[in-house]
Each structure stands twice: as structure tokens, then as C-alpha cells.
Design brief:
Layout lengths: L25 E6 L6 H12 L3 E3 H10 L3 H11 L6 H12 L7 E5 L5 H13 L6 E7 L2 H9 L1 E4 L5 E3 L18 E2 L6 H24 L3 E5 L4 H19 L1
Parallel strand pairs: 1-3, 1-4, 2-3, 4-8
Antiparallel strand pairs: 5-6, 5-7
Helix pairs in contact: 2-3, 4-5, 6-7
Length: about 250
């Protein structure tokens, strides 16, 4: 079950301390059910802080598209809406974290999703003698809002533009505004699979959230409203966590 938000964990839109906009030397973990906007916010924060955005969903899709050994191993799992095994996720994330652009930190989107992944991440950073702080931030939206966001998504295979039939529909139904290519829906964006992902994700990440909460590394923000407003909430949240961990 999805845990309710405690008032003390909510971060409202307010003036952000100047220190919040400076590049953090650390790792930001973005949590939230599928469709909460983690990817959008990660891209905004990556530009602002100058650290890489690492999306495990994107990494998995790239591997599937290129039919790498990992891609072949996870394709059917992803098509069924099931979670990729921890061993494969850790292998993929470790390879990415070894790249030089993560030396000052990164924004992890989609990882860790299980308690095993969370404890592995802390142990791995300890092994590497990385001492920068970790900020775990969950973006919260109701399941009805999320279901509408995900099942309404339509993608252009040519220019990679994404539309939403409810919130940002194409001018001509079923076709891309930019190149008139027929739009498609990802196999894992159907209502039945999305609901299954919600249940799996909520059950697995509940102990992960508690793990970071007990380490005073977790805070939650509201995910409704304009993109810029949500970004401001995350900046304020990271700023507050920075003070706690200082």
C-alpha cells in the first residue's frame, strides 16, 4: 500500500535558499510511482546542478533496443510489467556509476526500488570511499492522476516526441504534429499493466522509503502543478535535507 503523506514531509512552494541552487556534491534519489514526473524533474535538476541524470528505465530501454545481453534478458520481463531482478539492475547501475561524470554526484531516477538495492548502493559507495550525501526525494501524486498520465501517453518513433491524449493531445488524432508519423503506445503503458506496476512498486519501495527515512535522508514533495513549481519544491527539500545532514 502507498503510505500517506505526513504534513511534516510536505514541501510547499516558497522562496528557495540561494544555497539550494548550487551544484550539490552528492546523490539525489528520485522516488515516485510510474508517471509521477521523476524523469522530467531529473532533467531539470541535471541542468541546474551540472550532474548526470541516470534513468534506469532509459538504460533498460536502450539495452533492449540494441539487443545487448542485458536487453535480451529483460525484454519479456518489461513487456509483462514486472520488475527486473535486483542482480541485473545492480550490474547495470554499477557500470554507469563507474563513469567519470558521476565523480561529483548524480541524479538517480528509478533506483533503488528494493531494500536490497538500497543497502547495496550504500555499501557500494562506502567501498568506493565516496562520502558525499544522499538525498532521497519522493514525488507524490494520486494514483488516478498517474493512471491518466501514463495510459494517455503516445510516442512518435521517428522524432521521439511524446504526446498525451488527455493533457497534450496531437492536433491530428493518432499522428505526430512534427512529422505526421503514426503515434504508438508502449506495451507497458496499458491500464492493466500500469496498475500491476503500481502495486509492485508501492510494495517494494515502502521499506526503501523507511530505510532512508531512518537515516534522515528522505523527504516528500507534492507532484501537482507546473514543472517549475515542482522543481522549486525539490530544491527546497534538498536544501532542508542538506541542513539536517550537515
Amino acid at each position: 500500500m502507498e503510505s500517506p503523506m505526513h504534513p511534516a514531509q510536505m514541501v510547499s512552494v516558497r522562496p528557495v535558499r540561494k544555497t539550494a541552487a548550487k551544484p550539490p556534491v552528492g546523490m539525489v534519489l528520485l522516488f515516485g510511482l510510474p508517471g509521477a514526473g521523476k524523469g522530467t524533474q531529473a532533467k531539470e535538476l541535471s541542468k541546474m546542478w551540472g550532474v548526470p541524470h541516470i534513468s534506469t528505465g532509459d538504460l533498460l530501454r536502450i539495452n533492449v533496443a540494441h539487443m545487448t545481453p542485458l536487453g535480451r534478458a529483460v525484454k519479456n520481463i518489461m513487456d509483462r510489467g514486472e520488475l527486473v531482478p535486483d542482480s541485473l539492475m545492480k550490474e547495470m547501475v554499477e557500470a554507469r556509476l563507474q563513469k567519470s561524470d558521476t565523480a561529483r554526484g548524480c541524479i538517480l531516477d528509478g533506483f533503488p526500488r528494493t531494500l536490497d538495492q538500497a543497502s547495496w548502493l550504500i555499501e557500494r559507495l562506502t567501498t568506493l570511499r565516496v562520502s558525499f550525501p544522499i538525498f532521497a526525494v519522493r514525488i507524490h501524486l494520486s494514483r488516478n492522476q498517474l493512471l491518466r498520465r501514463i495510459t494517455g501517453r503516445r510516442h512518435c518513433s521517428l522524432c521521439q516526441t511524446t504526446f498525451n491524449i488527455y493533457e497534450n493531445p496531437p492536433k491530428r488524432e493518432g499522428f505526430c504534429d512534427l512529422d505526421n508519423t503514426a503515434l504508438s503506445q508502449r506495451p507497458d503503458d496499458t491500464e492493466a499493466i500500469v496498475k500491476k506496476r503500481f502495486e509492485l512498486d508501492a510494495a517494494l519501495t515502502a521499506p526503501v522509503i523507511e530505510y532512508f527515512r531512518t537515516r534522515t535522508q528522505f523527504i516528500e514533495v507534492a507532484g501537482d502543478g507546473p514543472v517549475g513549481s515542482i522543481t522549486a519544491r525539490i530544491l527546497a527539500a534538498v536544501d532542508r535535507l542538506s541542513l539536517v545532514q550537515a
